[in-house]
Sequence to fold (237 residues):
Amino acid sequence: MASMYEIIMSLPLFKGLSKTQISNLIEKTPISFSQFEKGAVIYNEGDPIEKLKCLIGGKVKITHRIGTQESGTCSCNEAHCNLFITETVESPAILEAQKLFGMDRHTDSVAICDEKASIMELGKEQYLKLLQSDNIYLINYLNYLSIRAQAINKIFISFPSRSLKDILDKMVISLVSRSADSIEFHYNPDVFAKYCSMTNNELIDNLRTLQSEGLIEILHDGFRIISRSCFLRHSVN
Fold:
């Protein structure tokens, strides 16, 4: 079993630190450790991110919503007028660090424990002091932000396509963590087909093709991407 030092050192924002530096971090920086039971909410959509949150144990399901409360024909927040993309993230992982600074510091997703989970938190002020204290902290954070920015930029490189695979690639690249274990899409078929500029039959045919390629598993209210990396590498013939 990995030690606390090894877990922290494997987090993207703390890579390259020595055990001595990790010891100094734990001893000299106000850090809180919390345990969450399965089903507990770590943060809700719209919550301000005031602390650096690190998942150091367990798994968390993170749900992203595409659409607004005004989408579709009603003003509710249900699946029939929105598309929900859920990813399962396993420790060690960083949660919403890109929202720690900047003009918009409110999260766009919901994080719920998929099993008992452990969270390490640092206040924004404490983390800012770390960024100023050693270049390794700053470089790690800049790399973290850069990877996310480059992922968003990547989705605009190709011309718009009516290919469902291309549309899903863009969603996965821009929203889903590279370490995501499971990715599920839940939606109303009529709304999702319209979003993809397809008829319902075209959507169904595209989904069946992806399933026949072994890339997805069709569910009663959506589908599951079996492997993020395989899905993004694969070109549907």
